[in-house]
Design brief:
Shape: globular
Helix content: 25-40%
Oligomer: single chain
Radius of gyration: 21 Å
Structural class: alpha/beta
Number of helices: 9
Strand order of the largest sheet: 7-8-9-3-10-11-13-12
């Protein structure tokens, strides 16, 4: 019998998203940007899974593909008992079915300045989804809008004002209120604090934790900031060049990293106090192009532990003694 605490709410299997690019003159080969290339993971109910990696590794693409905002190239995504899509078996939810599901699956966007319609008042922005999905009766929409704004730390009178009248942190609170108004169970958080000042980031993260406990939410938290992810998330998935290189319990991955890339990322986290001593790992070169990915292990071009086999063999996924998993030839 499945423990209720370990119930899986989202399952992603072999997810791929390749973007075709314009051919060079007289070239017969069709090239693709392999933004996401065979990613698999699960998220347990009422948990927070952190997706971390350098810019351009495919993190945000995964979130948008799960939500159906970007069509997938391959793979399968299952939310509870609903197969959102299964490319290989030609299965996909209809537009009507996906629309119904959107009330349960919401997103908080990275840029609070671009994600709010400047022509609409805050009240209209928060109430829009409730009207479309008929979350509450029409005569209760205004009251529900006020409740959502107050719950997210905004004054109820702010519903009559417009987005340009607010700071970045306040706009992100409005974005959270808009998502929360739909009574969701699962929220994709696409770097929700990246565009905010450091002093505001902790306020938004604490708000999200409070809302998670109050409403039993599940988060997919996408970020490039390892220090935020290790404190905020229950589990961490580390991505490099469209693939997962390590996954495990957040504290275990942070304090006992296994993959060389994870070690390098953690070494870049600023020290917490003057007495802390940390070895800085500097990676050679830059991240390769997602159009022409290296043979074998994708990280071998920047890895100080590389062996001859790393250049020709793609490492297999291995479960390690600390309960984490990693894709690295060091653990064969």
């Amino acid at each position: 019998m499945i423990n209720e605490k370990d119930k899986i709410i989202l399952e992603v299997s072999s997810l791929k998203k390749h973007y075709p690019i314009r051919k060079k003159s007289f070239s017969k080969t069709k090239q693709h940007v392999k933004s996401v290339d065979g990613v698999s993971f699960t998220i347990k109910e009422n948990k927070i899974l952190g997706l971390v990696g350098e810019s351009g590794c495919g993190k945000s693409t995964i979130g948008k593909t799960i939500l159906g905002l970007t069509p997938p190239t391959g793979g399968k995504v299952v939310y509870r008992d609903d197969v959102i899509f299964d490319v290989e078996n030609n299965i996909k939810l209809s537009s009507n079915e996906m629309t119904k599901l959107r009330s349960e699956i919401q997103i908080i966007f990275q840029d609070p300045y671009a994600s709010l319609d400047p022509r609409k008042s805050v009240g209209q922005i928060v109430a829009e989804g409730m009207k479309k999905h008929k979350i509450v009766p029409k005569n209760e929409i205004e009251q529900k809008t006020k409740e959502m704004l107050e719950l997210c730390g905004m004054d109820a009178t702010s519903m009559f004002r417009y987005p340009h009248e607010f700071s970045g942190g306040q706009r992100q609170r409005i974005g959270i209120a808009r998502a929360l108004a739909m009574n969701p169970s699962f929220i994709v958080c696409d770097e929700p604090t990246a565009a905010l000042d450091v002093s505001i980031q902790s306020q938004i993260l604490n708000l999200m934790l409070d809302l998670k406990e109050q409403f039993g939410l599940t988060y997919l938290f996408i970020s490039h900031n390892f220090s935020v992810v290790k404190s905020f998330c229950d589990e961490i998935v580390v991505m490099y060049l469209g693939q997962i290189v390590e996954q495990g319990d957040a504290k275990e991955v942070y304090h006992n990293p296994k993959h060389p890339y994870t070690k390098a990322l953690i070494s870049s986290v600023p020290i917490q106090h003057p007495g802390e001593v940390k070895e800085r790992i500097t990676l050679e070169g830059s991240i390769p192009s997602a159009v022409d990915v290296p043979n074998g292990c994708r990280f071998h071009t920047r890895c100080s532990y590389k062996m001859e086999r790393c250049e020709r063999e793609n490492p297999k996924w291995k479960l390690l003694d600390n309960g984490s998993g990693a894709a690295c030839h060091l653990y064969d």
